[in-house]
Amino acid sequence: MASIALKSFIGLRQTTSENKSIVLTKPNTQTYHKIRINASKTSPRVNGRNLKVAVVGGGPAGGAAAETLAKGGIETILFERKMDNCKPCGGAIPLCMVGEFDLPLDIIDRRVTKMKMISPSNVAVDIGQTLKPHEYIGMVRREVLDAYLRDRAATAGATVINGLLLKMDLPKSTGSPYKLHYTDYNAKTGGAGEKKTMEADAVIGADGANSRVAKNINAGEYEYAIAFQERIKISDDKMKYYENLAEMYVGDDVSPDFYGWVFPTCDHVAVGTGTVTHKGDIKKLQIAPRLRARDKIEGGKIIRVEAPPIPEHPRPRRVLDRVALVGDAAGYVTKCSGEGIYFAAKSGRMCAEAIVEGSENGIRMVDESDLRKYLEKWDKTYWPPYKVLDVLQKVFSRSNPPREAFVEMCADEYVQKMTFDSYLYKKVVPGNPLDDLKLAVNPIGSLVRANPLRREMEKLSV
């Protein structure tokens, strides 16, 4: 496969001579109503100004946080190093995110309504038959989604700086500011940028898996996976096969502890795999999904190669004083699926809401107790789905026989409905007792009831 440069696209598809009017929907410029909060009066007032918060990182977490802060009366500064960054990412978002974050439909490149789960022995199970007509998994390009959320934050009143955080000086006394040292690429000083400093009352670290904010507060390390992905441009005829279809491959050849994939994007497919335990073999493992999908991607050209780190669990420390971590910086990526876009945006918004509430719309100083309200809400809401997916990964990714059973189990309509409902709406959906019983007595259910799963579930109750 030859390598070519990645072309730039606007809106839903590449602009053509027949249709040059497709443009990305601009953020709504209507006047925002401030979020009104009845907060406690115990924290000191910020005299002569509003509370100032720096948000480091302009992805979904940072964009969502900055918009919420600005709408809530906080002086908001949003830092992002690469404004046109094409971040390595599968690009899948759940249906609930479209509504919750009021996303325009023209930033969704593909609507996936069908999936194929392919076992180690290449047995394929079709998934998606339980989806309602309006339900789908959205596929987006991060460079489009991220820019949209940043623009919306700016419209709400945030100041967006094309800058890179270098280090952060912690406060020397209670209530004194954080000092951020950064390179400003907005300044007209050429490609090197200009070194500057800025003070802020609080900081939100939304700067990804290699977060500098996390390092500055000694947030601790976490286990991570490496996802190796190739974006491959295939012919229009072959692309029709993937118009609304995604494929997932499992097997020792693909990954000893993850899965391989072929995801449709704007005008190409993303083919990849991931692993936690065999990072040094990632390029060898990538050969397997390409071989398994070779008839469908034959003749394609590799247009980009990516290998991002994917956090496997939250960091040991996510809040310290007036600094909070969100998104990948906090470690909010689900095991088993590797999904993170929705959780990034949601955590950014939750954290910002806690600051708006604690500061009484920017007129009071916040402290660690205010930011910990975000953590409490986050853990209460999302601990169950995280742990369920953790258990599934530990049980079904141990060897090929459990993977074969898992793929076979995915053929069950009840399993599909439970899985898609949980994914699309981000809730652990209560099951039907009768259907649960049918699954339990099914031969496949014997694996679910076997010792590996029982041992993992027992750990959750310790």
TrEMBL record:
Biological or metabolic pathway of the protein: Porphyrin-containing compound metabolism; chlorophyll biosynthesis; Cofactor biosynthesis; tocopherol biosynthesis
SUPFAM superfamilies per record: FAD/NAD(P)-binding domain (SSF51905)
Cofactor: FAD
Enzyme class per UniProt: oxidoreductase
GO BP terms, alphabetized: chlorophyll biosynthetic process; photosynthesis
Keyword terms of this UniProt record: Chlorophyll biosynthesis, FAD, Flavoprotein, NADP, Oxidoreductase, Photosynthesis
Catalytic reaction equation(s): phytyl diphosphate + 3 NADP(+) = geranylgeranyl diphosphate + 3 NADPH + 3 H(+)
A cellular component annotation (GO) from this entry: chloroplast thylakoid membrane
Superkingdom, natural source: Eukaryota
Keyword DNA damage tagged: no
EC number in record: 1.3.1.83
Family matches, as Pfam families: GIDA (PF01134)
MF-aspect GO terms: geranylgeranyl diphosphate reductase activity; geranylgeranyl reductase activity
Record domain MnmG N-terminal: where: 52-87
Classification via InterPro entries: BchP_ChlP_pln/prok, FAD/NAD-bd_sf, Geranylgeranyl_Rdtase_fam, Geranylgeranyl_Rdtase_pln/cyn, Geranylgeranyl_reductase, MnmG_N
NCBIfam families membership: BchP-ChlP, ChlP, GG-red-SF
Protein family per UniProt: Belongs to the geranylgeranyl reductase family. ChlP subfamily.
Functional summary from the UniProt entry: Catalyzes the reduction of geranylgeranyl diphosphate to phytyl diphosphate, providing phytol for both tocopherol and chlorophyll synthesis.
Name of the protein in its database record: Geranylgeranyl diphosphate reductase, chloroplastic
Organism: Olea europaea
